[in-house]
Amino acid sequence: MLNWAHQKPERARILGFAATVSRRYIELLRQSDPRALVIAACFFAMTRIVDDIWWLQGVAKREVTGIFGLLPEEWWPKMDWPMRIANFEGMLDEDTWGACWHSEGTPKPEEGFNGSLVSHIDMLAQILNRTAPPPD
User: Fold this and answer.
1) CA–CA gap between residue 116 and residue 121 (Å, rounded)
2) Are 80 and 73 in contact (CB under 8 A)?
3) What is the DSSP string of 51-109?
4) Which PANTHER family does the record match to this protein (predicted)?
5) Under a CB-based contact definition with an 8 Å cutoff, are residues 20 and 39 in contact?
6) In the chain, which stretches have pLDDT less than 50?
7) Residues 57/89, Cβ–Cβ less than 8 Å
């Protein structure tokens, strides 16, 4: 398991996400809080980059679709990005991903994913903030 996780940094980040979330966030998920669910959907969409691992195949699509079904309709616009990523067939590119997620010296999209978790969190915040927040 550790060898697999250390082969590519993004894999270790995906495995480490669950260990870094707060108890409050878990509580919000249990309450089906829409904002917490959208954040979880964005995380699961990012697992699409490890869809080549047999035991993770389909996780992004299955989880994002399931979360979408739990959300009130006014939250659906916030699910545009995770739904697009989770349901995309083929190799993810910059147009599909929504931003350049590789930098100089790292593999190009056709060579595989290699971005930082912080940059993806920033990117998700920008995407989610493009639309007005739903009413409470």
Assistant:
1) 9
2) no
3) TTSGGGTTHHHHHHHHHHHHS-GGGGGGGHHHHHHHH--S---HHHHTS----TTS--G
4) STEROL REGULATORY ELEMENT-BINDING PROTEIN ECM22, ZN(2)-C6 FUNGAL-TYPE DOMAIN-CONTAINING PROTEIN
5) no
6) 1-2, 4-6, 101-114
7) no
| Cα distance between residue 83 and residue 108, in whole Å | 23
Contact call for residues 111 and 8 (beta carbons, < 8 A)? no
CA 40, chain centre distance (Å): 7
Distance CA 35, CA 32 (A): 9
pTM value is 0.66
CB burial readout 83-109, b (16+ within 10 A) else e: bebbebeeebeeeebbeebbeeeeeeb
Q: What is the pLDDT of residue 119?
A: 61
Residues 40 and 67: beta-carbon distance below 8 Å: yes
For tokens 């260990």, the residue is 19
Amino acid 66: pLDDT: 97
Burial 10-27 (b: 16+ CB within 10 A, else e): bbebbeeeeeeeeeeeee
